[in-house]
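Sample intake sheet
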Amino acid sequence: MGCTLSSQANNVSDKVLGSNPASKAKNQSNTSSSTSSASLTPDQIVAALQERGWQAEIVTEFSLLNEMVDVDPQGILKCVDGRGSDNTQFCGPKMPGGIYAIAHNRGVTTLEGLKQITKEVASKGHVPSVHGDHSSDMLGCGFFKLWVTGRFDDMGYPRPQFDADQGAKAVENAGGVIEMHHGSHAEKVVYINLVENKTLEPDEDDQRFIVDGWAAGKFGLDVPKFLIAAAATVEMLGGPKKAKIVIPSISPAQIAEALQGRGWDAEIVTDASMAGQLVDVRPEGILKCVDGRGSDNTRMGGPKMPGGIYAIAHNRGVTSIEGLKQITKEVASKGHLPSVHGDHSSDMLGCGFFKLWVTGRFDDMGYPRPQFDADQGANAVKDAGGIIEMHHGSHTEKVVYINLLANKTLEPNENDQRFIVDGWAADKFGLDVPKFLIAAAATVEMLGGPKNAKIVVPSITPPQIVSALRGRGWKASIVKASTMSSELKRVDPQGILKCVDGRGSDNTQFGGPKMPGGIYAIAHNRGVTTLEGLKDITREVASKGHVPSVHGDHSSDMLGCGFFKLWLTGRFDDMGYPRPEFDADQGALAVRAAGGVIEMHHGSHEEKVVYINLVSGMTLEPNEHDQRFIVDGWAASKFGLDVVKFLVAAAATVEMLGGPKKAKIVIP
């Protein structure tokens, strides 16, 4: 659930508990016990790359929650190459040249030695591989070509005593796999991943080099040499001198455990349990304080952090007016309205977080006090383009929500108060997340707030969807919305909430969400089987800004909806779904009577792929000449459905109807 830590769990949990000094998390993030003494720290990697003329930054796995996958034993230990491939088992570790990286690092130059490495990789739970490409055959691996032609000679690496074809045959004979790449190199960035037993998967339409630094430790390599060789490879091949070093984040379970260690009640809840409460972050919403009281501001759709933008200054140790102005401008540049606040009883000292900071209550945690008072801070924020919010009333918060869903937030309700901490926002602004959470917890404690927390996590992450589909025999991959910008459309209130069916239709209002069977998906997921319940759902969909619909087709009338036919005839019985108490015609009449629309499809099913779209408020539109199933996964959350059950039912529907077992999961 969410992002995880392996060998760093104790270190990070101790930091959140406050038993260790609150030093920079990134400086604590070595990749495994096997490499901690010999490896470079993330800061040292950044410094070394910058000395070579690279742009380099540290990011946490939390920022890649939608993309990082668990390493799978079926995945090949493959090259870092970002191009397309004839192999789809991408969930193994990535090293330059695949297993050639191990031989290169150890100075192994013989075919016999290469065979031994192949067997060693298999014995450690990975599928060994090397690769070529369709234009240069086995010399299509740039890393091997550099090695065999002596480009690493001046770095002290002896050349292999075999050519590319001999190497490939030796690997294959010892049980390894030969992968063939296609297309041109168009990588834009190099990911150096230090999160143990996690990896990223290549996307030929949005290429990146992926170097799993933790894997060097697993195979006992000289990690600094491994990383230098990887950087030199990119440079010699003319690749991008831009790197992101991925380090572990704290997991939801660790947050809960750490808070419990401070005497809190803490539990993990999913977004499905928060239906109707989580909202998309909006650019017109202010980045505001976590304070749950009433406000003179109504633009509550921005991220929530202790003290508003003061949280950023506090975490970074910024104490000057000039620094605060720079943060104000930075927040605006990242698409949010910066703010700080006071209240009607204490003016600008009405922000409890700032009052604790300026009066030295964070001194023993290592935070320097601001060099400005509350009025000076507010004036600086306002001068730099920010907003001053004024709260009113007394604190009566009952719970602290720590929200880990990126670009989602909760909105305060002065009549049912809660503290709202958008943990994901700390990562967006490059803050030390454990320190941020310590400070948030300490703030609540020092202000006498409720020691009761709910950590909000996704019901299921995109990598988990990929893994589950592959477990059902599907081909599945993650694609970014940016690669589909010409196809993704903002949901239109005039568009019908329609079936995922990709065939032609007598309706052209395709700008609504797509769910199996249209609104039948909602009834199915909730176990609603009556006509009256179906009418209520029809009205609910309309009240939430969509045009409700179900459909038939020109050959089978209202039984032309495959999803409804499966439901009605009991094909979902073994999954625990009760059958509807109405037939297809009765269902359609009920939907129409409650204000819904009946759509009629035509033609045959020729869908080639299933798009599972997780970009909230966006959809794809069907094209009868290039058919695809379109499942708007975000809509399941909007209607408070069990998202996992919804997706399983969607996959089962495609399978039972003989559709394509090929999926693309679209992420923001």
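Comment: The first helix runs from residue 9 to 17. Residues 552 and 558 are 4 Å apart (CA to CA).
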